Amino acid sequence: MLKLYTYTTVLVDLRFKIYWDSGRFGHEFPPVAFAAEVVTESIELFLQSLDMSCLDRIRATTRYTMYSFAEPINYEVERSFVWKGLAGGSKLSIRGLSQVEFENQLALMKKRRWQDSIRVEMAVEIKAGTELRNRACAEVTHQLDTKSWESE
Questions:
Q1: What are phi and psi of 128, to 5 degrees?
Q2: pLDDT higher than threshold 80 for residue 150
Q3: Are 129 and 66 in contact (CB under 8 A)?
Q4: If 28 and its partner were Cys, which of 17, 77, 91, 141 is the partner (CB 3.0–4.6 Å)?
Q5: Which residues contact 60 (CB under 8 A, 6 or more apart)?
Q6: Chain center to CA of 58
Q7: Residue 100 has pLDDT above 60, yes or no
Q8: Could you report the per-residue pLDDT of 6-18, keeping only the tens digit for each?
């Protein structure tokens, strides 16, 4: 049976860092804001579609760089609702919200005419290509050289 889902466009404030070599090395990117089409039927589908939108945006951002990847090895994510115009941009973590609380937050965003956003903080582990492995070796060599100069 065909199931049709309800989609909503939300503003996403994405902050991400790419890791490689089992998290020993990493690079933090500047924040990116974009509009994402997400499924609002359930909290699980919402989080899944939000994560896929963010990973697609990260792939597009890193496509022509040494950080490009097809599929991440692993990723960790923290998501929260952020209300613009409130003191300090108040935020509420999505983790632990029930389905009813989640629906209430989406209804509140809709009443405020979607001026609020969803902040996604993501750490993505990728398989390092040749260029990244060479960079990691150069960083380790530089650290060793710096330590040897400091000890003399």
A1: -75, 135
A2: no
A3: yes
A4: 17
A5: none
A6: 8
A7: yes
A8: 888 999 999 999 9
Token reading at 71: 């599929």
Question: Taking a C-beta distance cutoff of 8 angstroms, is the pair 109, 10 a contact?
Answer: yes
Distance of alpha carbon 149 from alpha carbon 75, whole angstroms: 37
Query: pLDDT at position 125, please?
Result: 93
Which residues, 6 or more positions from 5, have their beta carbon under 8 angstroms from its beta carbon?
A: 39, 40, 41, 45
CB 124 within 8 A of CB 58: yes
Structure tokens of 152? Answer: 């003399």
Average pLDDT value for the chain: 84
User: Tokens 């998290």, residue?
Assistant: 23
User: Residue 57: how many CB atoms within 10 A of its CB?
Assistant: 19
Specify the higher pLDDT residue, 67 or 4: 67
Q: Please provide residue 116's backbone torsions phi and psi, each rounded to the nearest 5 degrees.
A: -85, 170
Listed by start position, the domains of the chain span 7-151
